[in-house]
């Protein structure tokens, strides 16, 4: 046995990689198999080792064990080609990185070796290992810097001044509760397996599906860009204050315009730094966190030192005093920042302080172990920063007055606290740089504010392009919307176009230059993100799919649901108008993805719930007795490949659409492999999806046609949702095909009757099988927008081959065409297809029309129903369903029935009219046929004799059978004459299918009867129910 097949990777020293810290145990040593060290490695380790091209040192003990096991494994490999369980067989990365994979069932069971694609890197290029971060530098520091942002240095004192100490603690508590529960939910999700790049978007899209995941992902990416602009504005306001205090410098007006100019310059620097990649951005973050920590320490030291000058006291900083705690304990909402403040307006300004909890998750693709780093780093960041915010708020409230004049003269006079409407511009109400005033060394606090705002701006700025890159790679949205900016450049594949887009987006919000207004806008964006994250955790834990096995256990689905509802409620309490706009944007992006129907399969919880609901519904149906009012025509259509007989599929779907189940059956006489089966079914479903046909496909191989059809009728479906109608195309070549093929077709019809299902046969004069014309053409191009494309390939064997004959051209009964109404003037059809044949040339228009005939809107005409025998009502029900379709709305039903003589015409008409009225079937005309018993014309008999004469000559049909069935033959010939007289110009003819008794009627005789009824007619549907009622007039 080949070693490569057994081991799953190339042998030799270069690939014998082992960590020296891992010691083999009985549990990790496969019996009789050499040590496979890749099974113990993570994907990053293996890629790193391969990229390095070197070996790791192997311990002496391990070397000895490997040598002994190698001798034992040599014998085992000669006995089996089984593969040992390894990580390589469960990861797409491994399948690209290793040369061997798990053997297929065919290789194990049938010794069929399938060719496997050669191993290669992505896009055939050598992959350069990217810089990976641990939980501290990748998540903890990044999250803390994002949370310790502009709100800490510029707004926490303002918040406590308005809300008071106890309400500030409530605001911090609510924000912490929301972020903490969201972190628990996120931790549960990310520990349920490896996650890719995209962080928040990735986990939501893989649980809630591409529609919700994509819409929230887009909003979250935009929110990060706006958050970057928020912190840039905060940086600029701090810089302006520094310029005023240390030199009195301004650029234009010292206000909004200066903020815009400085913000633009700083945004360019942020863009340039982030464009270098996450490596340099992370190094900058680590330097900034040191500055930030020193600044916070400086603040606390200054609070204990107390005011260092009269100016500090004149501005409201008095040091720790009990009366200040009492004064600032309760809220003091006033008109501030252009509006009357309240609890929720203050909360809206503060909440962006906690939105940085997802900064680490946003770069999950750059983390060494996201499943471990994200929970640990996020939870510790929330705990530490929430405590620090609460302490800073209490310190500000315990040391400063809410209002002060800031005048030293007033301080000396003792009037610095006597504030009027306009003379107090300092104190915690008005001084956003209060932390600088309290700090032991003011300039160091400015440095801390610069570090906090710049670090948050960097982290938020780099998150937006990363998210957009992942969303664009998933191709959920049109290329012009997202895809154009996702191309990676350089070794690290940085999305520079996405960086550029983020730059202009953030710059647009920087030009607003209003910190509180920007904070209000992004609060809703992050709240909706948190709401969906919590709902995703709730939903997947409620559904409990088998794959839901998170290693993080400290979460509760009901707590996640409560938090999701709380987030939505807070959105509307802050500003219901902004909340409605946010939800409208979410639904806009949701419907874009829903309309595009991206070809993705991520195993979402929605899919799991759909499976569970479907199973529950089917199980409930098993306990309900069937009732005629709930009858639904579930069809098994023998289409072969649906792309080979599109007209047959379209006609069957006319009946099943929104009503019942359609199964496209394919019987292949030859033996097929699992791979071939999968490819055939995949192409079949692709055709159904492209044509918006909601149906199923089933395939059976290595059997003849009747046996395969019998098996499908017996096992297709589940529970009571099973096919109850066998729908087949008419065998146009029955006169020239071999006798065995004809007998199988005839036997297939008997199978339907024997299994007590209805049988329907559709005939169009040109035939239904166009695989010979279209060849392997995979797509049919529509000439106008809105046209429904089709696609076909060669039909696999299994259903009767239909040759395109012109019918019986010498028929004395006329030469009716299939589309008689096409010659009449009328509105031009919307459907105008241009199909390409196997030679690459455009097919003639008449062939295109034949292929797509049942997709187009029918011109005004009739559907003639020849209800000759009571089969339970199926002959009447199917045309009625067709008449209710929009494309057939212009066609009215005409019902034909028979009477034995002229004396019973009125009685029969009244009886049939009463029956149709009770069935609530709308019809335009009711015609009673009285001369069915008349003998047919001699020319008709001669024509029929011409049909069966070759079979009599070949002794496939006996004279005895012919003479014994002469009466039935005459009846069918006479019926043929009547049908031609009345229905040659109809859009569709539906007639009760005659039944051939077993052993009494041969295949040639039965097919001659059907040929007699349907030759040279419009589309003709022969239907026979199973003699069980499908219509009722009871309520």
From TrEMBL:
The keyword Transmembrane helix applies. It comes from Daphnia sinensis. The lineage of its organism: Eukaryota, Metazoa, Ecdysozoa, Arthropoda, Crustacea. Residues 138-636 form the Amino acid permease/ SLC12A domain. Residues 1-22, 781-833 are annotated as: Disordered. It comes from the Eukaryota. GO terms for biological process: cell volume homeostasis; chloride ion homeostasis; potassium ion homeostasis; potassium ion import across plasma membrane; sodium ion homeostasis. The chain crosses the membrane at residues 152-178, 212-236, 261-280, 286-305, 343-365, 377-398, 497-515, 521-542, 554-572, 578-595. Gene3D superfamilies: Amino acid/polyamine transporter I (1.20.1740.10). NCBIfam families: 2a30 (TIGR00930). It is a multi-pass membrane protein. One of its GO terms (molecular function) is sodium:potassium:chloride symporter activity. Keywords: Membrane, Transmembrane, Transmembrane helix. The keyword Membrane applies. Residues 1-10 have a biased composition (Basic and acidic residues). It is found in: Membrane. GO terms for cellular component: membrane. This is Bumetanide-sensitive na-k-cl cotransport protein. InterPro entries: AA-permease/SLC12A_dom (IPR004841), SLC12_C (IPR018491), SLC12A_fam (IPR004842). Residues 645-1035 form the SLC12A transporter C-terminal domain.
């Amino acid at each position: 046995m080949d070693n490569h097949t057994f081991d799953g990777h190339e042998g030799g020293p270069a690939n014998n990689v082992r960590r020296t810290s891992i010691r083999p145990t009985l549990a990790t040593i496969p019996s009789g198999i050499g040590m496979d060290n890749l099974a113990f490695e993570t994907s990053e380790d293996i890629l790193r080792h391969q990229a390095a091209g070197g070996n790791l040192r192997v311990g002496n003990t391990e070397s000895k064990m490997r040598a002994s096991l190698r001798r034992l494994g040599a014998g085992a490999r000669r006995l089996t080609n089984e593969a040992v369980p390894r990580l390589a067989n469960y990861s797409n990365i491994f399948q690209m990185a290793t040369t061997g994979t798990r053997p297929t069932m065919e290789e194990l069971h049938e010794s069929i070796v399938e060719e496997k694609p050669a191993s290669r890197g992505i896009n055939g290029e050598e992959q350069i290992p990217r810089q990976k971060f641990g939980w501290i530098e990748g998540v903890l520091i990044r999250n803390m810097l994002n949370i310790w942002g502009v709100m800490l240095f510029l707004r926490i004192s303002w918040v406590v001044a308005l809300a008071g100490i106890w309400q500030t603690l409530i605001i911090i508590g609510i924000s912490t509760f929301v972020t903490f529960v969201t972190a628990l939910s996120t931790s549960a999700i990310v520990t349920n397996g490896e996650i890719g790049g995209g962080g928040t978007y990735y986990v939501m899209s893989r649980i809630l599906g591409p529609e919700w995941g994509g819409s929230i992902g887009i909003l979250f990416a935009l929110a990060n860009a706006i958050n970057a602009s928020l912190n840039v504005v905060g940086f600029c306001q701090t810089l302006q204050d520094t310029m005023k205090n240390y030199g009195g410098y301004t650029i234009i007006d010292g206000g909004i315009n200066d903020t815009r100019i400085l913000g633009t310059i700083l945004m360019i620097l942020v863009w340039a730094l982030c464009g270098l990649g996450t490596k340099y951005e992370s190094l900058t973050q680590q330097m900034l966190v040191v500055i930030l920590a020193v600044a916070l320490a400086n603040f606390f030291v200054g609070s204990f030192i107390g005011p260092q000058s009269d100016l500090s006291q004149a501005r409201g900083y008095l040091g720790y005093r009990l009366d200040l705690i009492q004064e600032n304990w309760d809220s003091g909402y006033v008109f501030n920042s252009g509006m009357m403040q309240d609890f929720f307006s203050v909360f809206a300004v503060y909440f962006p302080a906690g939105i940085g909890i997802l900064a680490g998750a946003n770069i999950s693709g750059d983390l060494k172990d996201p499943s471990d780093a994200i929970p640990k780093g996020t939870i510790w960041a929330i705990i530490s920063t929430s405590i620090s915010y609460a302490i800073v708020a209490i310190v500000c409230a315990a040391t400063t007055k809410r209002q002060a004049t800031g005048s030293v003269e007033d301080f000396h006079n003792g009037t610095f606290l006597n504030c009027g409407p306009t003379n107090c511009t300092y104190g915690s109400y008005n001084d956003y740089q209060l932390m600088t005033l309290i700090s032991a060394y003011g300039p160091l606090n400015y440095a801390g504010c610069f570090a906090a705002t710049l670090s948050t701006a960097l982290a938020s700025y780099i998150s937006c392009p990363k998210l957009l890159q992942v969303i664009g790679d998933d191709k959920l949205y049109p290329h012009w919307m997202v895809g154009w900016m996702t191309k990676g450049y350089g070794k690290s594949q940085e999305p520079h176009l996405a960086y550029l887009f983020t730059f202009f987006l953030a710059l647009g919000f920087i030009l607003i230059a209003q910190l509180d207004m920007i904070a209000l806008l992004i609060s809703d964006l992050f709240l909706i993100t948190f709401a969906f994250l919590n709902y995703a955790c709730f939903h997947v834990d409620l559904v409990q799919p088998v794959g839901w096995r998170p290693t993080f256990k400290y979460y509760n689905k009901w707590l996640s649901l409560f938090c999701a509802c709380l987030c939505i409620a807070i959105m509307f309490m802050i500003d219901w108008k902004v909340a409605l706009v946010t939800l409208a944007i979410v639904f806009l992006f949701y419907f874009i993805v829903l309309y595009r129907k991206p070809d993705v399969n991520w195993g979402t919880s929605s899919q799991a719930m759909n499976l569970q609901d479907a199973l529950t519904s089917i199980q409930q149906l098993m306990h309900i007795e069937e009732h005629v009012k709930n009858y639904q025509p579930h069809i098994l259509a023998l289409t072969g490949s649906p792309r080979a007989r599109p007209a047959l599929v379209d006609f069957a779907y006319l009946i099943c659409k929104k009503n019942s189940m359609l199964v496209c059956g394919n019987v292949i006489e030859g033996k097929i492999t699992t791979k071939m089966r999968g490819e055939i079914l995949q192409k079949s479903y692709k055709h159904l999806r492209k044509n918006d046909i909601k149906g199923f496909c089933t395939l059976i191989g290595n059997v003849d046609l009747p046996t395969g059809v019998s098996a499908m009728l017996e096992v297709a479906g589940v529970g009571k949702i099973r096919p109850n109608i066998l729908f087949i195309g008419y065998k146009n070549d029955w006169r020239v095909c071999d006798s065995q093929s004809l007998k199988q077709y005839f036997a297939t019809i008997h199978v339907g009757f024997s299994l007590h299902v209805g049988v329907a046969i559709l005939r169009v004069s040109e035939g239904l099988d166009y695989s010979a014309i279209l060849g392997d053409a995979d797509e049919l191009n529509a000439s106008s927008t809105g046209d429904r494309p089709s696609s076909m390939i060669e039909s696999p064997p299994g259903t009767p081959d239909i040759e395109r004959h012109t019918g019986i051209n010498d028929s004395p009964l006329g030469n009716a065409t299939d589309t008689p109404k096409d010659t009449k003037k009328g509105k031009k059809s919307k459907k105008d297809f241009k199909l390409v044949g196997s030679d690459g040339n455009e097919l003639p228009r008449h062939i295109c029309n034949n292929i797509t005939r049942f997709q187009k809107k029918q011109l005004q005409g009739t559907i003639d129903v020849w209800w000759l025998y009571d089969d339970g009502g199926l002959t009447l029900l199917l045309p009625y369903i067709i008449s209710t379709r929009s494309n057939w709305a212009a066609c009215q039903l005409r019902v034909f029935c028979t009477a034995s003589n002229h004396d019973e015409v009125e009685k029969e008409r009244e009886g049939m009219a009463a029956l149709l009225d009770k069935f609530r079937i709308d019809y335009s005309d009711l015609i009673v046929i009285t001369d069915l018993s008349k003998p047919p014309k001699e020319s008709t008999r001669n024509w029929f004799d011409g049909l069966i004469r070759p079979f009599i000559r070949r002794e496939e049909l006996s004279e005895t059978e012919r003479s014994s069935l002469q009466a039935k033959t005459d009846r069918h010939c006479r019926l043929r004459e009547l049908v031609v007289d009345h229905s040659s110009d109809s859009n569709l003819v539906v007639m009760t299918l005659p039944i051939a008794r077993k052993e009494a009627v041969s295949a040639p005789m039965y097919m001659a009867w059907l040929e007699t009824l349907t030759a040279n007619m419009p589309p003709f549907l022969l239907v026979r129910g199973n003699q069980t009622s499908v219509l009722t007039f009871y309520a």
